[in-house]
């Protein structure tokens, strides 16, 4: 009887070891599969960000040349400066996102990878949100610069100062209306997912969700480490 119990314990221990090995291999396979998908997604994101960087650089150079050609004409110089500042801000934000996406360590713990992915996502959402909110205000300076650079036309003389001021005031009034409409109707745009996503970006809902996810991941990391250290700050966008 004692021999049978010993043999049963040995068999049971052997089964435990095999089960542990199977679970370990399954975890490795699951991690490898998920990391492969993450790598593919991040490669596509880096390609998109790289294209945006090139486009922003072209715009910066073009606007710089336009400003240099109109240094003595403030009515053209000032709108170009406004546009260039926005493009430069977009360029810096895009470069930060590209660096973070390229520096992702796939050998790090899963929680750390998630935390860094969410940091990239937060930065991306913030950039989209600010660009969409500023877009109505940029129409007037863009119109002035585009007509002058593309056609050699003076928008002030062609359209009139009152028309340009009215467009600028309309943009100022449209921003809060757009923000309210996005908050009010974003969840009802199920038939147009990309419009819904942009609306949520403008309303700040995607940003809030991303920040909440970051907080959850940070809390998980603290529990996993058994530490009461405060959560790491969200990297600036």
What are the main properties of this structure?
237 residues; mainly alpha
Structure description:
The protein is mainly alpha-helical. It has one domain. Helix content is 85%, strand content 0%. The chain is built from 7 helices and no strands. The protein has helices spanning 2-69, 74-102, 110-151, 155-159, 161-185, 193-203, 205-225. The longest helix has 68 residues, at 2-69. The radius of gyration is 27 Å and the shape is elongated. The N and C termini lie far apart (70 Å). The relative contact order is 0.08. Mean pLDDT is 75; it is low at 227-237.
Mind sketching the topology for me?
Layout: H1 2-69, H2 74-102, H3 110-151, H4 155-159, H5 161-185, H6 193-203, H7 205-225
Compact overview of the structure:
This protein is 85% helix and 0% strand. It has seven helices and no strands.
> How many domains is the backbone divided into?
1
Report the radius of gyration as a whole number of Å. 27 Å
| Number of strand elements | 0
Describe the global form. Answer: elongated
Query: Helix coverage percent of residues?
Result: over 70%
Q: First CA to last CA: what distance?
A: 70 Å
Characterize the largest beta sheet: strand count, sense, and whether it forms a barrel.
none
Strand content is under 5%
Order of helices and strands: HHHHHHH
Enumerate how many helices there are, as a single number: 7
């Amino acid at each position: 009887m004692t021999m049978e119990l010993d043999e049963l314990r040995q068999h049971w221990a052997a089964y435990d070891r095999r089960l542990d090995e199977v679970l370990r291999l399954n975890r490795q396979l699951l991690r490898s599969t998920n990391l492969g998908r993450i790598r593919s997604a991040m490669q596509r994101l880096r390609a998109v960000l790289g294209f945006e960087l090139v486009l922003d650089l072209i715009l910066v150079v073009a606007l710089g040349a336009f400003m240099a050609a109109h240094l003595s004409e403030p009515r053209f110089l000032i709108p170009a400066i406004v546009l260039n500042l926005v493009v430069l801000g977009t360029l810096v934000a895009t470069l930060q996102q590209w660096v973070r996406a390229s520096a992702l360590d796939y050998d790090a713990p899963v929680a750390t990878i998630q935390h860094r992915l969410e940091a990239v996502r937060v930065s991306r959402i913030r950039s989209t949100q600010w660009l969409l909110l500023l877009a109505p205000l940029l129409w007037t300076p863009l119109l002035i610069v585009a007509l002058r650079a593309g056609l050699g036309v003076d928008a002030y003389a062609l359209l009139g100062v009152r028309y340009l001021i009215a467009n600028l005031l309309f943009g100022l009034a449209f921003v809060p209306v757009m923000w309210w409409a996005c908050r009010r109707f974003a969840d009802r745009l199920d038939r147009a997912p990309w419009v819904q996503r942009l609306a949520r970006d403008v309303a700040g809902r995607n940003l809030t969700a991303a920040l909440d996810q970051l907080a959850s991941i940070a809390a998980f990391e603290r529990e996993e480490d058994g530490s009461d250290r405060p959560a790491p700050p969200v990297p600036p966008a």
